[in-house]
Amino acid sequence: MNTQTIESQQVTLKQLKPFYGSVQAVQPVDATIRPRSVTAIIGPSGCGKSTVLRCINRMHETIAFARVEGQVLLGEQDIYARGIAAQAVRRRIGMVFQQPNPLKMLSIFENVAVGLRLEGYSRAAIAERVEQSLQAAALWDEVKDKLDYSGLALSGGQQQRLCIARAIALQPEVLLLDEPCSALDPVSTYKIEELLVELKQRYTIVIVTHNMHQAARIADRTMVFMVDRTQARALGVLVEEDVTTTIFTAPSDRRTEEYISGRVG
Amino acid sequence: MITQAPNYSRRKWADRFMRGLTVGATTLALIPLFLILGYVVLRGASALNLAFFTQAYEPPVVGAGGAIGNAGGVLHGIVGSLLIVGLALLMALPIGILAAIFLAEYPANSVATAVRFCTDVLSAAPSIIVGVVAYVLIVQRTHQFSALAGSVALTVLIIPVIVRTTEEMLKLVPSTMREAAIALGAPKWWVTLTVVIPTALSGIITGVLLAFARATGETAPLLLTVLGNNNVSFKLLEPMAALPLLTYKYTDTPFPAQNTLAWGSALVLTILVLSVNILVRWATRNRMK
């Protein structure tokens, strides 16, 4: 890999301000997400961590009246720049959601192939890439004999890995995960975590999680968001961003310490 | 020691009473349904024979002893109903489904609100009024009763049915499905066509079948538009027979053989709706394991 590739997988948030209508949801966020590493976003409910995550691939604006100010740079390019299509951004920055959401009427194979078909890949290329992606998502052995089954025939953990396979089939620069394990049992959670550690060799991974232990287990760096109640209206705020071990052993912000020690949030 | 709450026996009786009420109400609602179905089958079954399905109208003939025999069949009605309703569906399906997509997928605009209000009003319009409108606008202007005019009237009647059921079904598709596709960089039209509609398909089909049943059973607008025809006709610009029209016409004649035909065509109407229902459901079932 050359430096160019590494640069292109870095995400930089510059004065990022998500809005819902006229209501600002989070104080301006400035942060750098390092290429090919796992960055965890933790914080109590309502602190805006999912909102910030959804700004990174322009999913935020799909909600009625939601909009974004500030910049999100992928490599050196602002994804909110004029002339850049949201759809093009989303193909470079994949996303996995809280509830596993395989497309209901499509088979397991087609679920992974969907993005490739949109990109106009040839039939042979699609078959090859689907297998690669399912293998990369550690799901191939479990589903290779039932590729034409409905995605809903799988267990919750398998469905979530199917969604990861679907997201990485397009070989994006960045993979965003919004509490991907909150609907899963511990064993499935462990498998996904193992998988993410594997995948960070190729992708920049950002994971929102409610589970601080999960952040401690898999994240290289951690961003801590809190709810700022000193303002007239409660507002999310990024209080600290650092190497995960530092966050959990020697946080520099008092609010982080209170949160991870369980005194607030 | 485990003891029952002191008011347990009162609660038990209240429960039994309410449950009895619901069972009673359900039975009451089902009795007319089974009475009608049973009576139509009972009276109509005797009319079903080969001639019934292969012949059109035959003038009654007086046989030996003054008995009036051979009243022909209702082939012209079956053909007419299928043609008229088929054409109506052909016109109503694209309009209705596209309108429903507009309402469900682009809900936040004033045009959608207006369209929704209009379809609600239209779905409550008595069918005879729609018939009169088709009569004035088409039949009077062309100086010709025609199957086409009937189809147009039926189209107007079933569009609201299709629009509202399809809209409700599209709205039921969970937003997580849409998000899944949007996050892959799919454009909106693609999400609608490939994710939303297939997911809602069985519900949409239910709506279309409802519309089909409604159109097949309508009599009033056909009286004013297709008029009726004693022969098998495939000409869409001329009067045509239809099963409900035959039922209506033959019920009121003094010939018992024709009265039997009326029951027969009522039965065929019921069977037609039922079999199309089963056939479409079978053809569009989800084949995925």
Structure, explained:
The complex is a heterodimer of chains A (265) and B (289). Chain A is an alpha/beta fold. Chain A contains eleven helices and eleven strands. A six-stranded mixed sheet of chain A has the order 7-8-9-4-10-11, with helices on both faces. In chain A, a hairpin with a 6-residue loop joins strand 10 and strand 11. In chain A, helix 4 runs parallel beside helix 7. The mean pLDDT of chain A is 92. Chain B is mainly α. Chain B has a domain of 168 residues: MetI-like (MetI-like fold, Orthogonal Bundle), CATH 1.10.3720.10. Chain B has a two-stranded antiparallel sheet. The longest helix of chain B has 38 residues. Chain B is globular. Classes of the chains: A alpha/beta (265), B mainly alpha (289).
Topology:
The complex is a heterodimer of chains A (265) and B (289).
Chain A: H1 3-8, E1 11-20, E2 23-24, E3 29-33, E4 38-42, H2 49-56, E5 66-74, E6 77-78, H3 86-92, E7 93-96, H4 108-119, H5 123-136, H6 140-143, H7 156-168, E8 174-178, H8 186-199, E9 204-208, H9 212-218, E10 221-228, E11 235-243, H10 244-249, H11 254-260
Helix pairs in contact in A: 4-5, 4-7, 5-7, 7-8
Chain B: H1 8-45, H2 50-54, E1 61-62, E2 68-69, H3 75-105, H4 110-123, H5 127-142, H6 147-172, H7 175-182, H8 188-217, H9 220-223, H10 243-251, H11 256-283
Antiparallel strand pairs in B: 1-2
Summarize the structure.
With 265 residues, chain A is an alpha/beta fold. Chain A has eleven helices and eleven strands. Chain B is an all-alpha fold and 289 residues long.
Spatially, the strands of the biggest sheet of chain A line up as 7-8-9-4-10-11
Strand tally of chain A is 11
- Reported CATH architecture of the domain at 75-242 in chain B: Orthogonal Bundle
Which structural class do you get from the secondary structure elements of chain A?
alpha/beta
- Work out the oligomeric state of the chains in this entry: heterodimer
Radius of gyration of chain A: 18 Å
CATH class of chain A, named Alpha Beta
> Low-confidence runs of chain A (pLDDT<50, min 5 residues)?
none
Q: What is the tally of beta strands of chain B?
A: 2
Average pLDDT over all residues of chain A? 92
CATH topology grouping of the domain at 75-242 in chain B = MetI-like fold
